[in-house]
Amino acid sequence: MYQYTALDRQLINERVAQFRDQVRRWKAGELSDEEFRPLRLQNGLYIQRHAPMFRIAVPYGMLNAAQLRKMAHLARTYDRGYGHFTTRHNLQLNWPKIEDVPEMLAELATVDLHAIQTSGNCLRNITTDQFAGVAADEIIDPRPLAEILRQWTTFHPEFAFLPRKFKIAISGTEEDRAVTWFHDIGLHLKQVDGQVGFTVIVGGGLGRTPIRGEVIRDFLPWQDILSYCEAVLRVYNRYGRRDNAYKARIKILVQALGIDAFREQVEAEWAHGKNGPMTITQAEYDRVAAHFAPPAYASLGAAELPQEKAFRRWVDRNTHAHKVPGYAAVTLSLKKHGIAPGDITAEQMEVVADLADRYSFGELRISHEQNIILADVKQADLYAVWQQASAAGLATPNIGLLTGMICCPGGDFCDLANAKSIPIANAIQARFDDLDYLFDIGEIDLNISGCMNACGHHHVGHIGVLGVDKNDAEFYQVTLGGRQGNHAKLGKVIGPSFSAEEMPDVVEKIIKVYLANRHEDEHFIDTFDRIGLDPFKNLVYEGRAHGKAKSAAQENA
Fold first, then answer.
1. CA gap 502, 379 in Å, rounded
2. Torsions phi, psi of 468, nearest 5?
């Protein structure tokens, strides 16, 4: 993985010293809360429902064991002993004291970590595929270009105060696992006639106005990605709305202008920077790519694995094909039933760091599904990894299954949320706490968000759950048919919202319709596409309609 230079470390340490002084001035009354707000946001510090929340950047999802141990130390020393991994790879600590954050930043700097641009109207963390560099379906390793993009976006003076936050995702595989269609800029690496380049997507996003992005350039040479992204951002920075936060994202601008007119603006702007200093040279690419050279893989054949049922289930759901024979990528599930999805204790972080050191060249990844990946595990070591992960509560075999859900912190922590997310997740996990049944149901994505900001990606879940405020009470809207991947699509709302108590029943009815209608080996999303929304809607609302009719009859009697 990328190793910071002396200049990288100087920049981070200067930022730490700067923020330490800003906190001192705020405490002394020299800065008002309003003056301090943009300064703390630039350092990943929010004020949430009950306490500050501190967000640590994990660029394109890569960490080493020492960095994860430092996160464990911060969680134990300055917080309540646990953290939460988000859908943008970052780690959130939900209970720090503002006065402690400068020291936390200083400790992070010792292991080349920071919280820069994890909040505010700026260029946020670059995200990519959790299996980058090892995926069997990889066309090009996206990590060197993700790192070049990271360096370019960090402290970019022109884009420090955009109309709204801006997110970039990059994918280098046949199957898009980075949700690129729903980012402000989505990048698909590809090869055409031996030339490497990008399909560039703009104007995607979830949130209050979910929109699938549109292709602005089918093929852009990789050398031009910085100058082209700069042109996109300049057009957005110039014309994006600043009078209405709900209409300030680039997706609104692209829709207002239309993709053709937006493309004309970008191409005209790009004409000033094309073939200029922003062009990435081969020498610069090679310098960065050297940090992502393959580790010292052994020459191995396929290993004979034990046939123990619990272990085989875990191998089936929690391991992924590797491009090197004899190795596998392992997903450690942060979706143990009864635990908030994405949460991890300090002790578990230390277990994962030890596993990474012993079995995966000291490196690990964070996925946007809020899990942890050991990317380079020998197949012969899988049983040992499973045993140790199981003992730490990190081996639930539900990756890709119903209870392996994405879920934001919701109203338990976030002051933007309309409703709680975690209790809904836990209630659904409890209802489906039967591995035999989960494996029979098969692959299905359930995503839960506590508000329209869609941090839980509910729009692209096969089943999506959105918390809504209804007369000061918490209710939940359900969508079906959403999906990520190459054929990414927004889900459809099935009808009126449900109370929290109804949600396990609602999900169970949806699953019953699927099981009653599926063809042999047909996944949920394929059945949904074939039979449509109505069969699900009819069963889900059947009892509710009967109850309303009965109440009306009683009132009229």
1. 43
2. -130, 155
> For residue 455, which amino acid is it?
C
CA distance 524 to 518: 8
Which residues have C-beta within 8 Å of that of residue 417, sequence separation ≥ 6? Answer: 49, 408, 409, 410, 411, 450, 451, 467
Report in angstroms the alpha-carbon separations of 418 from 312, 314, 413: 40, 36, 11
Q: DSSP state, 400?
A: T
Three-state secondary structure call for residue 208: coil
Kind and range of the H or E run holding 428? helix 422-431
Query: How open is the CA angle 46-350-387, to the nearest 5 degrees?
Result: 130
| Alpha carbon 317 to its chain's center | 20
**Nearest Cα to Cα of residue 125 among 177, 87, 77:** 87
- The CA radius of gyration of the chain, in Å to the nearest whole number, is 24
Cα–Cα dist 463/510, whole Å: 9
168 is written with which tokens?
Answer: 């970039």
Q: Are 333 and 399 in contact (CB under 8 A)?
A: yes
Partners of 190 in the beta sheet?
197
pLDDT at 534 over 60: yes
Q: What share of the chain is helix, strand, coil (3-state, %, to 5)?
A: 45, 20, 40
- What's the CA angle centered on 373, arms 371 and 379, to 5 degrees? 135
Q: Characterize 403-440 residue by residue with b for buried, 16 or more Cβ atoms within 10 angstroms of its Cβ, and e for exposed.
A: bbbbbbbbbbbbeebbbbbbbbbbbbbebbeebeebee
> Which amino acid makes up residue 238?
R
Query: Beta strand pairing status for 214-221 and 498-499?
Result: unpaired
C-alpha atoms less than 13 angstroms from C-alpha of 495 in its C-beta half-sphere: 14
Q: Which amino acid is at 530?
A: R
Question: How many of the other CB atoms lie within 10 Å of CB of 519?
Answer: 8
At residue 155, what are phi and psi to the nearest 5 degrees? 60, 25
Cα separation, 214 vs 355, in Å, equals: 41
pTM for the predicted model, two decimal places: 0.95
**Each residue's pLDDT tens digit, 481-516:** 999 999 999 999 999 999 999 999 999 999 999 999
Distance between CA 459 and CA 207 in Å, rounded?
A: 8
| DSSP label of 448 | E
In angstroms, rounded to a whole number, what is the distance separating the alpha carbons of residues 134 and 172?
Answer: 11
Cα–Cα distances in angstroms (integers) from residue 434 to residues 337, 428, 502, in the given order? 10, 11, 20
- Using the Cα atoms of residue 295, residue 296, residue 299 and residue 304 in order, give the sign of their dihedral: negative
Q: Write the pLDDT tens digit of every residue in 334-359.
A: 999 999 999 999 999 999 999 999 99
468 strand-pairing partners: 475
In which residue are the tokens 């991890």 written?
A: 344
